[in-house]
Amino acid sequence: MTRPEPYDVLVIGSGAAGLTAALSLATKLKVLVLAKGKLNSGSTAWAQGGIAAVLDAGDTFEDHIRDTMVAGAGLNDRETVEFVIEGAPAAIDRLVELGVPFNQDSGDLHLTREGGHSHRRIVHVDDATGWAVQAALLKAAEENPNITLLPHQSCIDLITGRHEQKYSGSGRVWGAYALDEETGEVRAHTARATVMAAGGAGRVYQFSTAPRGATGDGIAMAWRAGARVSNMEMMQFHPTCLYNLEVKNFLITEAVRGEGGHLLHPETGHRFMVDYDADRMELAPRDVVARAIDDQIKRFGLDYVHLDISHQRPEFVRTHFPTIYDKLETLGIDMTKEPIPVVPAQHYTCGGVVIGLDARTDLPGLWAAGECTESGLHGANRLASNSLLECFVFGEAAAQDILAHWDSMEAPPSVREWDESRVTDSDEEVVIKQNWTEIRRFMWNYVGIVRTTKRLERAAHRIKLLGDEIEDYYGHFRVTTDLIELRNLHQCAQLIVDSALKRHESRGLHYTLDYPALAKDPADTVLVP
Ligand code: FAD
Ligand code: SIN
What we know:
Blueprint: E1 9-12, H1 16-25, E2 31-34, E3 51-52, H2 61-71, H3 78-86, H4 88-97, E4 104-105, E5 108-109, E6 111-112, E7 122-123, H5 129-142, E8 147-150, E9 153-158, E10 175-180, E11 186-190, E12 193-196, H6 217-225, E13 229-230, E14 235-242, H7 255-258, E15 262-264, H8 286-300, E16 305-308, H9 314-320, H10 322-330, E17 340-349, E18 352-354, E19 366-368, E20 373-374, H11 387-405, H12 430-446, H13 453-476, H14 481-502, E21 526-527
Parallel strand pairs: 1-2, 1-12, 2-8, 12-19, 18-20
Antiparallel strand pairs: 3-7, 4-5, 6-7, 9-10, 10-11, 13-18, 13-21, 14-17, 15-16, 16-17
Helix pairs in contact: 1-5, 1-11, 2-3, 6-14, 12-13, 12-14, 13-14
The structure holds flavin-adenine dinucleotide and succinic acid.
Flavin-adenine dinucleotide binds at residues 12-18, 34-37, 41-44, 46-51, 129-130, 153-155, 197-199, 209-210, 213, 217, 251, 348, 370-371, 385-388, 391.
């Protein structure tokens, strides 16, 4: 029998989306927040550029909406785009109240520029915005008596009707089973409402700017529980990840191009964006710039291209990009004097669990927010700095919807304990490492920036073979975080490839040589479990 839980709501994830929801829920309810690893181990703490918001007198909501929809290549949901963009000023106000020390400019917030934005509209804290935002949210959550933060808990699966002691046939979500990474115990955490905010699936690719834990756990858990997932083929590749043999996933923020950085062929010095998008040059949307770099690298057999901002004043560069300047200095690169070697890398998961404006998923009792979702905001390609914003707006929407319907929500029933009676400790951990590496490598080579049907089919074949092996392993051995992540990476790889095979056109981030043209009518790729 499960112990009665002292919490009303379970939030899975302690990044921007999860903590935004938790802080608003905690005005009335008791909230438990679970995080895999440390509380600041998600992507939020890594965000560099900033948060997009219309704050300048010369800027308008309509311009931000248009820029978002141009980047999204017609696949965005206009109502969602309006909802998020019009919610931005209030979201920034809440962060200011929490003490986020945004850069100032003569008494106003300083706004920087990024690719795809027709105005300066990115509020930021130097080039380490996410670190400051994560710290402020965590401080507020730690000080809130209605919030319990539990790090080092790897959620395995959602608790649904089939886990009830007496199956009621409700199909409702009642919380999640989580592995305590320190004790090895698996506990059922039940709650009336569950908010999934477990971040993206970037680590399904060999090269990614995302942190180690971005293994798509939330998407895979929701899918296994019966929620629809959409647009998983829309994987965003950031054009400028540092190329360095030791430091594998250090981002060079888009704001470097926003503040005048040029992309150059490393041998000839040619500013090659003129050959791909002569109007927007380095500030074209990410898919355009990433494909251009990929083309240069493949066409000229290069390891990397150059990003050069050394024509700006050294003081300007050092004060705008102190984190990047310091990091590069430790690697022997002085960005005020020489170019930075860069390559594209996976950066953001545009697809995910389908949600509405109230952050509800298909499953009663489950809300979702942030990078694990597909809300309709990003469409076929996310506009820079729109994702933290999405976390704040939908984290808040989830909380408001739960609070509004709280009185009619049932208490969770008794649910079954996690059953370990038929598993043993693994004696072959190497299987996990081997499969993890294999998935990430073929996803990079076969399901990357430029795709073909043949490569996608090859990936699908590999995924099927590995699936049998992983499920067999999962059925026989005690769970570990590595095994949980491998199972979820595999699940996400399958969702990405299945979605990519369904899209017979090139739109936004999905570019295939077999269908180079746009289809007449934009349509989401919706997968139903
Ligand atoms: P995350 O912040 O990733 O948090 C996920 C949480 O879920 C973590 O607490 C994690 O521990 C937890 N979790 C995951 N799996 C489990 C599990 N199985 N059990 C329990 N807990 C789990 N966006 C912008 O808008 N502006 C930027 O400037 C920007 N820069 C970026 C720079 C980098 C290098 C990267 C990688 C991303 C950047 N992004 C940026 C994207 C943005 O940071 C993310 O989309 C956003 O932070 C996601 O927030 P989230 O709350 O959805 O998830
Ligand atoms: C960056 O700083 O380039 C990242 C911005 C983003 O991912 O939105």
